[in-house]
Amino acid sequence: QLSKRLQTVADYITTGHRLADIGSDHALLPVYAVQSGKVPLAVAGELNKGPWQAACQQVTNAGLSASIDVRRGNGLEVIEALEADTITICGMGGALICAILEAGHQQGKLEGVKELILQPNIGEDAVRIWLLEHDWLLQDESIVEEDGKIYEVLHAVSSKQAKQQNDKLYKGEGLPFAEPINRAILLRMGPYLLQKKDPELKRKWLAELEKLDYIAASLTQSEQESARFKLASVKQDQKLIKEVLEWLY
Ligand code: SAM
To answer: Which among 19, 36, 44, 123 could bridge 24 via Cys, Cβ 3.0 to 4.6 Å?
Structure first.
């Protein structure tokens, strides 16, 4: 049984695709994907020795060594071009996910890949920007709560029409602000998540507002000149988030 977060990721995997799960840790996702018949073959990639050993053990115990190859290495270095149809990168920060994608892109490892399923723990906006700048079409997003934490899952596909479709997606139609604010909000909060209006989205941004309250309080106490500017920007940010939430809910 997968966690709700990884189940959401697994549900996006197109049946029949060959999977590469990067940063696989215990290889729970590839084991589930193969056992459930979703994918015929998978690679579990891991940079670090402990998680790599755990993945090897898990795959051996599941009797899936013939269909899941556990490989040790950095990011997409563990796969060859055209070897995987779906790449999943989950449970890391958005900056690291972008760094892995960018290196893989430079090395030609994304060639032939049909879908990316990404679950950043933070920095989701950086991932949306990377996808947009590299002409991956953002096709859907989900938000789930698990053990008091809220996670976003982004599903992007390779598409010849990515540019036009992304342009439309990030146009900000229906949003109440002027450009470039609308686009910034969509990249930050997620165009599909804003459409879906899940209660988790509201909870996530209310928690973010609380964090900003905390930051604002400590900046107010600071005597540094730069703190005044930072405080103004935090307040501006809070105002915008509140306006979006009021408009949305
Ligand atoms: N993907 C699993 C999940 O979502 O439950 C595991 C997430 S775990 C928090 C992140 C894993 O990514 C760790 O096992 C870590 O060793 C691995 N990792 C970090 N940087 C990596 C990289 N550059 N390439 C491959 N794996 C990496």
So the answer is: 44
One domain, residues 106 and 213: no
108 shares a domain with 214: no
The pair of three-digit structure tokens given for residue 12, joined into one six-digit string:
């996006």
DSSP 8-state secondary structure symbol assigned to residue 75: G
Task: List, for residues 125-159, the tens digit of each pLDDT value.
Answer: 999 999 999 999 999 999 999 999 999 999 999 99
pTM: 0.97
95-108 pLDDT, tens digit each: 999 999 999 999 99
ipTM of the complex: 0.99
The residue to mutate among 12, 48, 58, 116, having the most atoms of ligand 1 within 8 angstroms of its beta carbon, is 48
What pLDDT is recorded for position 172?
A: 86
Domain closes at, from 118, 139, 173: 173
Rounded to the nearest angstrom, the distance between the alpha carbon of 227 and the centre of ligand 1 is 35
> Does the residue 235 lie in any domain?
yes
| Nearest-atom index, ligand 1, CA of 3 | 5
Residues 165 and 201 in one domain: no
- 13, 56, 92, best to mutate for ligand 1 pocket (most atoms within 8 Å of CB): 92
φ/ψ of residue 8, rounded to 5: -60, -40
Domain extent for 207 = 197-248
- For residue 53, the CA-to-ligand 1 centroid distance in Å is 13
Identify the CA nearest to 14 among candidates 86, 105, 94, 113: 86
Q: How far is CA 156 from CA 69, 128, 135, 188, in A?
A: 24, 9, 10, 16
